[in-house]
Amino acid sequence: MAEQQTMRAAIFRSNEGIGVFDAPVPEPGPGQLLVRMWWASVCGSDVHMIFDGLHDPAMEGKPGFPGHEGVGEVVAGDIAAALPGVDVGSAVLTAPVGSAGACFADYQVIDASQVVPIPDGLDPKLAMMAQQLGTTVFALHKFWPHSVPPRVAVVQGSGSAGTFFEQQLLAQGVGTVIVSEPLEHRRALALDLGATAAVTPEDLGTAVLDLSDGLGADLVIEAAGFDVARAQAVEVVKYAGTIGCFGFPERGGLSPFPVYDCFRKAIDVRWSVGAQIEPGIPAFREAMRLIERGVVRVDYCIGEIYPLEQVADALAAARAYTGVKSTVTLR
After folding, report:
1. What is the mean pLDDT of residues 282-293?
2. pTM given for the model
3. Can you tell me which residues the record assigns to a coiled coil (predicted)?
């Protein structure tokens, strides 16, 4: 068990915002591990939970919430329930269900089946990106389960998730990958990673027609989270094409969507959630291998590093799109 009895932890309450306080070190129960956290990364869903009210009210006041992308060291718990290669002292990626995350704290209790060992020699800050990369690996398997890659693919949004989709599509042999992104520095990143074209949303329709011989995209991945992006996906996908919706919704409840146009074009619309509850969490283990082998670059995602006491600033920077991601250090 942890030698200390208290820890630093970010605590969020909707009427107070998020701050850092002392909290008891949690104790693992059956099937759980206690992980001493080293690093945590801010996810776009964290931003929506903190600033837009898209969180489970029952999670308010939970130490470490809503952080769910982190790495650290196993210090105690039910090792027998963990994946092979995990033991006390192991460096691990923590991959809890996003809505139950608690890695904005010195210690986190997590289901033993939701940690992935970090390979020897791999920088833990890079390994940390296997959490979000894993969700995109899971999503892409669902969006395009075919053995033959799409001829033309569009990725809407060039944040971390969008660039992970872009790189996987290129690695799978997609000949034309078009990225739509309003921010110039993110369009430049998309091109640096190998995109065929990186354009503003206003120019996306023309670019897709020019690069698809007027047919439209076989696959459009919406990784931005905006209603307007999903509507544009319907516009640029080809007849009987596929749209993969990945971005976190703008709001709870109903959202506008061009159902009639989708119906007339016979579009296959798919959604992705649940990577963390897939038995054995294979998508996250695959993501770790992709990073270790250099198939997917993630170094640009580390971004500015904030101490835990400045977690509110890290979240605000993520909301302002000042970089690709923000990192919180707990060391």
Report:
1. 98
2. 0.95
3. none
